[in-house]
Structures are given as C-alpha cells and as structure tokens.
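Memo to structure team: turn this sequence into structure tokens by end of day. - J.P.
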Amino acid sequence: MTQLTESLTNLVDQLAKLPGIGRKSAERLAYHLLRVNKLEAMALAEAIRDVRENIRYCEVCYNLAEGARCSVCADPKRDTSLLCVVEQPRDVMALEATGGYRGLYHVLLGRIAPLEGVGPDQLTIEALVDRVRSGAFREVIMATNPTVEGDGTALHISNLLAECPVEITRLARGITTGSILEYTNKEILSDALAGRQKL
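Reply from structure team:
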C-alpha cells in the first residue's frame, strides 16, 4: 500500500479533526485540494487565516463580530426592548434568516450540560443577567434548543431573572404545517399538546 507523504498525512489528520469529517472524507478533501489550482487552494487557506485573526465575540451580545460590536448590536433600527437568548452564533444566523425577528440577541456560547462538565459559570449567563437587570428590555425570549440541556438552561436563566420586571417567553413548539401525525416524533407531539391554543 502506498504511504501518504508527510505533508499530505498532516493535512488529512487536520481535516479529520473537523466535525462530521471522517478519515475517508478528509482524504477526499485533501486530494481535492491537490487537484484544484494553487490560487483556489491558497484562497481557502487565506480564508481560514482571516477568520481566525479577525473574528471575535461581540462585546455586548457574544455574537460573532469583526469589530467590537456585531452587525445586530450596531444596527440602530433594531427593537432594543426585545432580547432573544440563544446557545450559539449559528442560532442567530438561523433566526435572522427568517426575517421575522428585529430585536437584539444574547449568545450563551453553549448550554448547561453537567454530563459534559459545562456549568453556568462557563457560559455568558452572568453578562445576560447584568444586561436584563439594566432595565432596558420588556421581553426576554428563551430560544435555547428544545433538548434536556437547552430546557434546563432556559429554566436556570428564568429563575435568575424572576425578580426582574421583564416578561420571559419561550419559543413555541409543535407540529409544523404540512406534517403528518403518525410520522411526528413523540417529543414534538407532546410539546404540541402541552402548548395547544384556543381555536
């Protein structure tokens, strides 16, 4: 069997560390990078370097930013009385893609997960509580993922904010339009039943 060169082995090893990329996928990506022209391969390397050197967390909400503040916090047209709490910056991107929310965000940079050794002190919960205690918000929307850890994180934060004069809400859950009940998982059905509304 032919051995990979040292530099190619190193590239495969590094690519295999990426989430969702196994050894075989890493090898395919490495060989692809060898086949494309040098400018295209170097553009990828340059993009990786730029992201590592230029991206930081927003000083206000912990979203991704290239300056001190992210584009949401810097936008004067946002509704500054609404605050949506999410787990990760990619959740901000997903909500922004809907075009239906015009408030501000707070990114926790994770969720409380005791089995993984992640406690409240490892998240941006203290900064969130300080923001809400400033009194600038009328509503805090808990948009953590609908998992045991996400729900636990939302409950923990809700308890910390219980004394604040702010309405705390949770994203609605349930069956999406066009779904068929027999193919819907039991957690979604349970949430749909619990969150039912008057017709």
